[in-house]
Write a structure and sequence with these properties.
This protein is an alpha+beta fold. The chain has helices spanning 3-6, 50-53, 103-108, 110-113, 117-139, 178-188, 224-245, 247-252, 258-261, 272-281, 305-312, 367-376, 385-392, 405-413, and strands at residues 15-26, 31-37, 43-49, 61-70, 79-90, 143-144, 150-151, 163-166, 169-173, 191-198, 211-220, 268-271, 285-287, 294-296, 319-322, 345-350, 355-362, 398-404. It has 2 domains: 3-90, OB fold (Dihydrolipoamide Acetyltransferase, E2P), CATH 2.40.50; 110-421, BirA Bifunctional Protein, domain 2. The structure holds aspartyl-adenosine-5'-monophosphate.
Length: 433
């Protein structure tokens, strides 16, 4: 049995058998208290005579048979098991994780830290986010596809590519499935994928990973506004379903969900130019390349983590920043025919400083324009020959977006660092465990 079933007044007085691990142990003279953790991460207090448990250590694996009783003093819900029999599977060696540990040690021992209540709670929230993300697409008639992870070309700029030797040639780990999804829409219609994306991010921030779970979508015959409507519906659905399914976990994480409850379409569309005006009016400064001098932000600057934080400091719902200058966006972003130099593109920023969680928009569908943009960015169009074919054979207006699962989980769980939203984080300095 599991703790979730047992913690129920209908079991009081009944005999149960439960397996798990010693999460906490308080040895006393006659009776001792074990907080047993089951294989779903739930816990229940078990009381056993001290002579029976003498050999037990933290994380020993055991099976206890005993009678369920209700006692308001029992932690975690007021139920406990008065144990009669104990079966020991393994006596754990001295456990390296205690109650107060540095973040670094918890990362070094992540294979064990997955057993902490915080990690269990975040992992469950993450599972719900993945589940409801998939569910939204399935229920709305989008088809699931899988793009290759080993690729030949860059999508999001060469500086974050992981290079690998692929038999006798060079190849890269995919930064985004986008270009492949674009190829699929001509025969499969609206498609989506959930695959790992890789970025050789040099910077150490609380929102960048070298490997992240990327939920991406692409559809034919859509414009920017169509894409934004998909994004806001998807994110609202995932947020609402997750806070309902994971109320207990979010409470454990001390996440006040009152702002999440308000997340529903439409999200504000804040033009990039207006975002710059707001930042300037607040005297917002950005660092120059030398890092030492600062200047006011200007039209044409990309929005840094700090500027995104400033823009979303006081909002409760995500916002879209729309219409970035194409100069700060990749070659595939379509230029707005009404506004020279402005892209039909938008980033969704999560409230309270969490910043960008999606990026997307309309793609450049004209072969001459996209080739020019590639050349301007120093890319060799020959390296994108197959991709350019998509503009050669029946090109259509189309668009899509990418959502970083860890960024979304970070916002929903209020996690300080993105490394806590993934079970085995990959960063510049960490590729183990
Ligand atoms: P972009 O590079 O903005 O756009 O990525 C899309 C989304 O992926 C997430 N993300 C990351 N999450 C964790 N660690 C990282 N290093 C990281 N980099 C990105 C973010 C981001 O919003 N192909 C385009 C999207 C499109 O236009 O369809 C792309 O990949 O949440």
């Amino acid at each position: 049995m599991r703790t979730g079933e047992i913690k129920n007044s209908s079991f009081v007085g009944k005999e149960v058998t439960i397996r798990g691990w010693v999460h906490r142990l308080r040895k006393q003279k006659e009776n001792s208290f074990i907080l047993l953790r089951d294989d779903r991460g739930g816990v229940i207090q078990c009381v056993l005579s001290t002579d029976k448990i003498a050999a037990l250590t933290i994380e020993s694996s055991i099976e206890i048979t005993g009678t369920v009783s209700q006692d308001p003093r029992a932690p975690e819900g007021g139920f406990e098991i008065k144990g009669k029999e104990l079966k020991i599977f393994n006596i754990a060696a001295e456990y390296p994780i205690g109650e107060y540990q540095s973040d670094e040690l918890l990362l070094d021992k992540r294979h064990l830290a997955l057993r902490t209540r915080k990690m269990i709670a975040i992992a469950k929230v993450r599972a719900s986010v993945l589940h409801f993300g998939r569910q939204w697409f399935v229920e709305n008639g989008w088809m699931e596809v899988t793009a290759p992870i080993i690729v030949k070309g860059a999508v999001e700029g060469g500086s974050t590519l992981f290079k690998l030797r692929y038999f006798d040639q060079d190849a890269y780990l995919s930064q985004s499935a986008q270009l492949y999804l674009e190829a699929m829409i001509f025969s499969l219609g609206p498609v989506w994928s959930l695959t790992p994306s890789f970025r050789a991010e040099k910077s150490r921030t609380v929102r960048h990973l070298a490997e992240f779970s990327h939920l991406e979508a692409e559809a034919p015959w859509v414009d920017l506004e169509d894409i934004l409507r998909v994004e806001e519906k998807l994110v609202s659905y995932v947020v609402h379903s997750t806070i309902e399914e994971r109320a207990e976990e979010l409470e454990f994480l001390k996440r006040d969900i009152s702002d999440l409850q308000k997340v529903e379409p439409p999200f504000e569309r804040l033009p990039y130019s207006r975002a710059i005006d707001i930042l300037r009016s607040r005297g917002f400064q950005i660092s120059e390349d030398d890092g030492a001098t600062k200047r006011s932000i200007e039209f044409g600057d990309d929005l840094s983590i700090e500027s995104e934080r400033e823009l979303t400091r006081e909002v409760e719902k995500p916002i879209f920043v729309v219409g970035y200058p194409i100069a700060v966006k990749p070659f595939y972003v379509k230029e707005d025919p009404q506004h020279h130099g402005i892209g039909l593109t938008a980033d969704m920023l999560a409230p309270r400083g969490f910043g960008e969680i999606t990026s997307g928009g309309q793609r450049e569908d004209n072969i001459d324009s996209i080739t020019k943009r590639m050349l301007k960015e120093g890319l060799n169009p020959e390296a994108y020959a197959w991709y350019l074919d998509l503009r050669r054979y029946g090109s259509v207006p189309h668009g899509g977006f990418g959502l970083g699962i860890e960024r979304l989980v970070r916002w929903i769980t209020n996690a300080e660092d993105i490394k806590d939203t993934v079970l085995f984080p990959r960063t510049r300095s960490r590729v183990e465990p």
